């Protein structure tokens, strides 16, 4: 996905520093969650193009795309990583995405949750590259990024995918 996996760790602890912006948008100070709907409203409004807009957009991307969960909220503690916008590239966001997805899949498995959180687009791309199940046809073209451009559009049905997973063997995993 083009996110760095080497760099400063992204850790969301209970005592992460806050920004005034977080205080303005959190639903509950004890939980420090910002509703996605609040971010959508801000992005649709007259927020402008400055640092506040960039922070709101990144929080929205965190909550909807990179670190989604079932609650349609984003952890306000991510704001601590948005204080210095120039330093964002120093963090291992790809590793954080993988860790979050792993936690979400484990919770789904261990607690029988009906929702899988995490970046499912990453999981889909990974499965195309590593599992010989419902993989679309590989395209030979010069596009290598985004990685989804490597495959032709596919219209595989859920029942076909389930059947293929049932027949999956070790020799079909790369």
Can you characterise this structure?
By secondary structure, the protein is mainly alpha-helical. It folds into two domains: 20-106, no CATH class; 131-172, no CATH class. It has six helices and two strands, in the order αβααβααα. The protein has helices at residues 20-25, 36-44, 51-66, 93-111, 120-130, 158-166; strands at 33-35, 73-75. α2 packs across α3 (51-66). The longest helix is centred in the middle third of the chain and has 19 residues, at 93-111. It starts with 19 loop residues before the first helix and ends in an 8-residue tail after the last helix.
Number of DSSP helical runs: 6
Question: Proportion of β residues?
Answer: under 5%
| Unreliable residue stretches | none
Could you tell me the mean pLDDT?
79
Structural class: mainly alpha
Report how far the terminal alpha carbons are from each other. 19 Å
Radius of gyration: 19 Å
State the total count of DSSP E strands.
2
**Overall tally of domains:** 2
Relative helix content: 40-55%
The major pleated sheet works out as: 2 strands, antiparallel
* Shape field: globular
GO biological process, one term: meristem maintenance
InterPro entries: AminoTfrase-like_pln_mobile, MAIN-like
Domain Aminotransferase-like plant mobile: 1-172
Protein name: Aminotransferase-like plant mobile domain-containing protein
